[in-house]
Amino acid sequence: MDQDRYEFVCYSDPPGRVMDELRGQDLDFQEAFYFFVVKTNRYGWDERERIETLDNRFQTYALPVKDGDPRSAMLTREVGTDRYTYLGLTRNNPARDEVYAEACKAHGLASPGRTPYP
User: Fewer CB within 10 A of the end CB, N or C, for the chain?
Assistant: First the structure.
């Protein structure tokens, strides 16, 4: 059996926020997110979705849920690891500022340096 190359972690602040959100999501989103995880495990990560790097430590992403859906999943990844933290959903496009705010809360960052991804 192939070993997963990516690990996803649900961030929750206050406790239960993300898990309640996940439970309330429609089946189409859950299926799309499942296939996203399968695809990244099989083929690798699509760097086109990267937004910026915070303090040279955390990369931020906003991944479209599926074609025609205005929602994006907000994620961070610690540089040099395959550990991704799921921060929630957003309808903002671009989502840069919302992902930045959620990443700061999730990782305890106060005014981190921001390096945009080209």
Answer: N
Stated as kind and residue range, the H or E segment containing 29 is: helix 27-43
Q: What residues have CB less than 8 Å from 68, skipping those under 6 apart?
A: none
Calpha distance 50→92 (Å, rounded): 15
Residue 116 CA to residue 109 CA, distance in Å, equals 17
Q: What is the mean pLDDT of the chain?
A: 78
> What is the spatial distance between Cα 4 and Cα 108, in angstroms, rounded to a whole number?
27
> Token match 């399968």: residue?
38
Q: pTM to 2 decimals? A: 0.71
Report which of residues 98 and 83 the model is more confident about. Answer: 98
Q: Residue 70 and residue 42: Cα distance in Å, rounded?
A: 26
Residue 35 φ/ψ, nearest 5 degrees? -65, -30
User: What is the band of 72 on the pLDDT scale with cuts at 50, 70, 90?
Assistant: confident
Contact 63, 49 (CB under 8 A): yes
